[in-house]
Design brief:
CATH class of the largest domain: Alpha Beta
Number of strands: 32
CATH architecture of the largest domain: 4-Layer Sandwich
Number of helices: 17
Radius of gyration: 28 Å
Strand content: 15-25%
Helix content: 25-40%
Shape: elongated
Structural class: alpha/beta
């Protein structure tokens, strides 16, 4: 049958299900006289993988919320709502939540929080950790899910039994012991949790694929089993998960749901046959659409197998695997009939109620559902931001601009170079004598581009230039206002002043004095330097005076002027260079030294030839009027927007990011030899 009216079909499917549920005892299911009656029937609602099309996800999420509300209302004491991970992905939708117009809905606007707000509003009670949760590193993940001021954080726990959260300092404080109550674990991390559903204790355990070590940015998180090749050790993974399941069994829990983000359904199917006492596995990461004969699919979609996939576990007991496609296109619904021992009764499975329930992109209330007001509020605000900001373009890039925390705080990156060069170009519009640029890596808050790990991927993620956004009329590779505002969120003002050769060396010594994802790590323009992390680090006292001279800067060159050679200042240490930097780094007080990230700049009154660009620039001297209402003259955003539009408006920026061993502007001598002065 050809699908011509999705709303009509969905309504009919809902009517069929309503009649079926009226004929079905709330504690049993199916029609087989040979099957034992169910002692308890769990309604499991599940989603995952909102990581593909922003347009599809945003157009579908309201109707999805309505379906969840409708089904939960039918079985208010029997419903568990979960996600198997990849609840968000860096990109325009993710970035749009940073706009202040989202503050009313989110409490505090910040990247990615709209997606967490969707899950909160839909009543998700637990989630697995997907690879995309970690794309921007563990600190970003922690900041997303924990409460902060008026931001509630995730109102559910994230689960991964096979991950050592304590190994990573960014998330260690969020770790809780296994076995707590899910409703008391909002914004926390644990291996398994307990959800009370109608007086029944449902054990929910999570597992994340060891391939995350290859395809995302897991920081220091430790995955078991350790990945030793491109293939997962399924036997080892099952043995690890089984330990958690055994803990639940020992605690008297006989109904167990595993949220598994394995990237490929074959692994979840293999786990089902290797584990014992796991009743339902909710798969994630493969975007696989399982369905049954009663399910109405979106035009062009094809089923990849039966919903649910039925098999026997290692003890010969029935177990199932469920999964639906991504981007809120479907809601998974499994009516799970259990006997009095907590064993599934396959004869009682009901395909009229269970399956992949299609959502609508064109009608929020399709099927007669009542949508979540918060979901529509957040959705509409995100759409408005995307319409106004993601189509406002400032230049092009054919390469991924590396602005992720783990990169810009540890090494030179192509984005670090680009934004430092932009500040230098911009300052020279007003003052052509400016020679060098210094900024902190911590001031770069995100990448510009896409981190792509395709469903089922086991190799490293593919990093690409920004993908197109047809709804905003933005082409592939074009850099939008939204992307710039997200990446340079702080929008620092720019200052220029003179520094001596000795001061410049000291500033760079400070930048590399403490290593390991430090915000102070320098990104520079107009100069290049090398450093040896094994040598003595510069130390400062509380007044920012040097107490231990640094020996890490080995070579430093400004243009053709050699400033440091073999760790020693060359020439007149008091000769000066005109520097542009961020007011955050330079500004202490008028009488006290020291600026942001502890940089040893002098007291403001002691700066030599200080010019504050926000006060001195005009449209005539600043390359035109301000780029946007927030990218004001003299700001870092205005600098980057004008630089990109001027230099890469027609021909795209095309410099790939390089590993530390190939970096030229900032050379880490533990990774490569010193060629700065060559």
């Amino acid at each position: 049958m050809k699908v011509t009216d999705m709303k009509q079909l969905l309504t009919r499917r809902l009517l069929i299900a309503t009649v079926a549920s009226a004929l079905m005892l709330s504690a049993c299911g199916g029609t087989s006289n040979a099957a034992p009656e169910a002692a308890f029937t769990l309604q499991l609602l599940h989603i995952s993988d909102a990581d593909g099309s922003d347009s599809t996800a945003l157009n579908s999420v309201a109707n999805l919320s309505g379906l969840i509300n409708k089904f939960r209302a039918q079985y208010p004491q029997q419903t568990l709502t979960v996600s198997s991970g990849d609840n968000y992905i860096p990109g325009p939708r993710f970035n749009a939540a940073n706009d202040t117009s989202l503050s009313a809905a989110l409490g505090v606007a910040e990247v990615g929080r709209a997606d967490i707000a969707f899950l909160n509003a839909m009543g998700v009670q637990a989630s697995a950790i997907g690879n995309h949760e970690l794309d921007l590193g563990t600190k970003q993940f922690a900041d997303m899910i924990k409460p902060s001021g008026a931001w509630s954080g995730a109102r559910f726990p994230y689960l991964a039994y096979n991950v050592d959260f304590a190994a990573d300092s960014e998330v260690a404080a969020l770790k809780l012991a296994n076995g707590g109550k899910a409703q008391e674990q909002s914004g926390k991390l644990t291996g398994w949790t307990v959800v009370d559903v109608g007086g029944q204790k449902i054990g929910v355990i999570g597992a994340s694929s060891p391939v995350f070590a290859n395809i995302t940015s897991p920081g220091k998180l430790q995955f078991t089993p350790v990945l030793t090749s491109s293939e997962v050790d399924v036997a080892g993974l099952a043995a690890t998960i089984q330990k958690g399941v055994d803990e639940m069994t020992a605690a008297g829990i006989n109904k167990v749901v595993l949220l598994a983000h394995m990237q490929t359904l074959a692994i979840e199917k293999a786990l089902a046959q290797r584990l014992k006492n796991v009743d339902i596995i909710v798969a994630g990461g493969s975007n696989t659409l399982l369905s049954d004969a009663n399910d109405v699919l979106r035009t062009g979609d094809k089923s990849a197998g039966d919903y649910p996939y039925e098999t026997k576990d290692a003890a010969g007991q029935p177990t199932v695997v469920v999964n639906v496609d991504a981007d809120y296109k479907y809601l998974g619904r499994f009516m799970a009939p259990f006997d009095d021992k907590g064993v599934l009764i396959p004869q009682r499975f009901d395909s009229k109620l269970s399956g992949a329930w299609m959502t609508s992109e064109s009608d929020d209330s399709a099927g007669g559902v009542t949508v979540s007001g918060l979901v529509t509020q957040v959705r509409d605000a995100i759409k408005a931001v995307l319409k106004s900001k993601d189509g406002n373009v400032f230049g092009k890039t054919s390469e991924f601009l590396e602005g992720r925390r783990a990169a810009v705080r540890n090494e030179e990156t192509n984005f670090g170079n680009l934004t430092a060069d932009a500040n230098l170009w911009y300052a020279r519009l007003l003052d052509p004598t400016v020679q060098i640029s210094l900024k902190n890596g911590g001031g770069i808050r995100s990448e510009i581009g896409e981190v792509l790990a395709m469903p089922g991927a086991t190799a490293a993620a593919v990093l690409t230039a920004p993908k197109a956004n047809a709804e905003a009329n933005r082409q592939s590779g074009e850099i939008s206002q939204l992307a710039v505002e997200t990446a340079l969120k702080f929008n620092n003002k720019l200052w220029t002043f003179d520094v001596t050769a000795a001061q410049l060396k000291s500033l760079l010594e400070h930048g590399v004095a403490v290593l390991g994802s430090q915000g102070r790590f320098p990104q520079v323009g107009g100069m290049s330097f090398s450093y040896d992390p094994s040598r003595t680090a510069q130390a400062l006292d509380a007044n920012f005076a040097v107490t231990t001279a640094g020996e890490r800067i080995r070579s430093l060159k400004v243009g053709s002027d050699v400033v440091v050679q073999n760790g020693v200042l060359v020439g007149n240490a008091q000769r000066t260079f005109r520097l542009v930097t961020l007011n955050f780094l330079a500004e202490g007080t008028s009488t006290a030294a020291g600026g942001g990230d502890g940089y040893p700049f002098p007291a403001t009154a002691d700066f030599v030839n200080l010019t504050k660009l926000d006060a001195a620039m005009t449209a005539t001297t600043g390359g035109g009027v301000a780029s946007t209402s927030t990218a004001l003259l003299g700001s870092e955003q205005d600098a980057f927007m004008k630089f990109m539009k001027s230099q890469f408006g027609s021909s795209a920026f095309g410099v790939k990011d390089t590993p530390a061993a190939q970096d030229l502007r900032i050379q880490n001598l533990s990774q490569r030899s010193d060629t700065v002065l060559n």
